[in-house]
Amino acid sequence: MIPFKFIFLFFVFWSGVPSLLNAQKVGLLMDSYIIDRWYIDEKLFTSKVKELGGECVVEVPHGDADEQLRLAKKLIEDKVDVLVVVPVDGQKAVAIVEAAKQAGIPVISYDRFIASQDVSFYISFDNEKVGKLQAQYALRKMPSGNYILINGPVSDNNSIAFHNGQLSVLKPYVDSKKIRIVADFVLHGWSELEAMMKTDEYLTNNKAIPNVIIAANDAVATGAIQALPEELVSKVIVTGQDADRTSLKNIIAGKQSMTIYKPIKPLATKAAEIAIQLAKGEHAQGTKLKFNGIEVDAILLEPIVVDKTNYKETVVKDGHISLAELAGK
Ligand code: BGC
Prior knowledge:
Rossmann fold, seven-stranded mixed beta sheet, four-stranded parallel beta sheet, 12 helices, 45% helix, 20% strand, Peripla_BP_I, signal, SBP_2_dom, Bact_Solute-Bind_Prot2, Substrate-binding domain-containing protein
């Protein structure tokens, strides 16, 4: 007779095996870690996938779109159940979606839009609103004067959305000649150095002193501030985005005016939930939205304006950053 204890243990063991075997395999394809926020995205996303019983494989192409396609093919060969992609290049990433489609693997477009009809879900923030909030803030602080716009690369669809949002708000002020857009830079990458060089180049070649720099994100803002002569720092209104540590410190110090805070937790958590649903072969219902003529199931979260007056009630309260981190070097 087999003792009851062993029979019991046998069943306990076997009941655990299928769940291990059935764990949903999620492939997360990042872009790079140049901007702080992506560490947070990865950490929150992977831990939520684990909490939901899934397994996460992360690949990072370090800003190289061709490498991202290669890594996508590797994940497809490794038989992931779903691919979650932060596209390096929204057009080039269409090839990733096509390769995944052939293997029957759904793709989630994370934070940045991939221009394909076959994307299963797009989750991000209202990126046009990001640009609108930046421009509205600048206009409130400086309703007349010279404006410089510095945006990210067009390979990132968000850059185009930020720019469109900014222009939609600024246009009436340009038309009525209240403000003048003295430069409208589009960078090759989301690079602090490039933003610094562009600002420097502008200041060297132009007499019109900028009153506002609409910098699309915090890295760009930090670069632009570095190029400003001392007498202009704190006088020029500088916007940003991401609530990066450096920028929040600059905001407290009065060098940068504001940032746009996009709470990463709801984005990463929701994306992980959708990833598990799709991996199980279920349908994930979003709102049908159209981007560049392509309709997808999507969720767009709300961006939040943060400046010196509300950083404690927003980014600090949310645990995005601590007062100690803001006080440290
Ligand atoms: C994101 C921003 C980020 C930028 C650079 C954009 O697509 O929406 O939050 O600052 O990429 O990584």
